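Go through this pair.

…
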Amino acid sequence: MSTNDGSSMKPGRITLHDVAAAAGVSKSSVSRILDERLPRSESESAKRVRQVAAELGYVRDISAASLRRGNTSTIGVVVPHLTDTVMAMFYEAVARACQKAGLFAIVVATSRDEPEADRAAAETLLARGVDGLILTTAQLGEKFTQELQLRNIPFVLALRRSGNGLASVGDDTLGGYLATRHLLDLGHRKIGIIAGLSYSSSSSDRLIGYRKAMDEAGAEIADGWVVPSGFDIESGAEAAAKLISHPDRPTAIFAVNDNTAIGAMSWLPSAGLSVPGDISIVGYNDIPIVRHLAVPLTTVRVPFDQIATGAIELLRSTTLGPNDRIRIATPTLIPRRSTARNASKDV
């Protein structure tokens, strides 16, 4: 192998020393210029080093850098399901945030929110030497995060909180309020909710937002209008069937995630009902498919990139005050065609 200046170079992995020799600068200068975690220099020397590195095919040796720093630059991410679109979107956001921070994300999927499976997944990641954990599986009242604190293991909760440890979440109470307020503004007063899982803070907070909006509007919540559910399509269909069979049937439904909203929308035609002609529906998360449905879904958009960036910043921070332990990102209502003004005279 030869460089542009005619010097020869032995075959094999290109090192910082090789780049430094070819560029005519010190090895420490090359290391600093090529370190993606540092501000990018646009000096002529820096441009020359990057050009030489590209021509030689230099690839940064992450493992060697990790050994020098005493860490692995890897973050473990625990999610309930890899097949869940929300979790896939969040993991991609974490991967982007890690790349910007010079880190690498490893994901381990757990089994249906089971605490022991969550624990096993976290222990697997810790055994692989990750520098910290991002947990999306927190359950209200659980003990595992307390154990991690006692073991001085760096971790941050994301999307959900448990009351223990650092957390980066969306403002789910505000999101639930925005969804319900939208339906109220369209003239609906009989609004049911597909409420999700009670141990999930995201579900419970969205329910709080729903109740707050209904209370402000003076709209009573009938017994049976709050239906617990899973987060999957089938659960949404089952919950919709319960709401539609209610003797005082709602004219609108707020589903605390998009999958359950899709399930409700898919079931309603079997009852002879249309969306939004007979029933208005609002979902939550704004997963990509909902804008492409036959009736595009009104939903609440969650800023996953902001939540992921907040999680990484919390995990890496060494100076946090008592008021800095949680990051809260603001959601946005996205109106589409699944909601319409209430045409019923019985409001």
